[in-house]
């Protein structure tokens, strides 16, 4: 495997903050050897969320997702490390907490809340391009 030092955007979503899991999520990131470069807590505006989730506009879960994401404060983190973009998504686990594997953040802490699949605790950028775009948005 080639070395590729990257930066990614991690968000602790409103459910993660409300359930006091921000520290546990950061602990797992640091335990893996990734470095916290910057961190901020904020109440995201609809404009910020619409830009962040532009790729999902028009999908059935788009509106509920934005409503959920603006329902409370989130913690945004700039995280650096070797192949951290893919690596954090492995730490996070599958999008649906019901099927996310044990040992992952979503697998260990995600709940099956019926229709509320959007409550899956964390966001992680999915590519180098997404990471650059999202970090510029959240750490302008
Ligand atoms: P991610 O990259 O694993 O976060 O997943 P996506 O980029 O595909 O989706 C963005 C977010 O939208 C997810 O993290 C979920 O919060 C939410 N989401 C995705 N798919 C669904 C769905 O089928 N139903 C609902 N309610 N929410 C979804
Ligand atoms: Mg995504």
TrEMBL record:
Its cofactor is Mg(2+). GO terms for molecular function: kinase activity. Keywords: ATP-binding, Kinase, Nucleotide metabolism, Nucleotide-binding, Transferase. This is Nucleoside diphosphate kinase. Gene3D superfamilies: Nucleoside diphosphate kinase-like domain. It holds the Pfam family NDK. Its EC number is 2.7.4.6. PANTHER family: NUCLEOSIDE DIPHOSPHATE KINASE (PTHR11349). It comes from Agromyces marinus. Signal peptide: none annotated. It catalyses: a 2'-deoxyribonucleoside 5'-diphosphate + ATP = a 2'-deoxyribonucleoside 5'-triphosphate + ADP. The active site is at 123 (pros-phosphohistidine intermediate). PROSITE patterns: NDPK, NDPK_LIKE. Belongs to the NDK family. CDD domains: NDPk_I (cd04413). Residues 5-140 form the Nucleoside diphosphate kinase-like domain. ATP binds at residues 13, 61, 89, 95, 106, 120. NCBIfam families: PRK00668.1. SUPFAM superfamilies: Nucleoside diphosphate kinase, NDK. It comes from the Bacteria.
């Amino acid at each position: 495997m080639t070395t590729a030092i990257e930066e990614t955007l991690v968000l602790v979503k409103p459910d993660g903050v409300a359930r006091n899991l921000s520290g546990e999520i950061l602990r797992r990131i640091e335990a893996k050897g990734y470095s916290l470069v910057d961190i901020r807590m904020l109440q995201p505006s609809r404009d910020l969320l619409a830009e962040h989730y532009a790729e999902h506009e028009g999908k059935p879960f788009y509106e509920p997702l934005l409503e959920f994401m603006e329902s409370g404060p989130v913690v945004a983190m700039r995280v650096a490390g070797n192949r951290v973009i893919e690596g954090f998504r492995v730490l996070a686990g599958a999008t649906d907490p019901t099927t996310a594997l044990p040992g992952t953040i979503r697998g260990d802490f995600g709940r099956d809340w019926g229709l509320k699949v959007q409550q899956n605790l964390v966001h992680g950028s999915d590519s180098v391009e997404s990471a650059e775009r999202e970090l510029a948005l959240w750490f302008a």
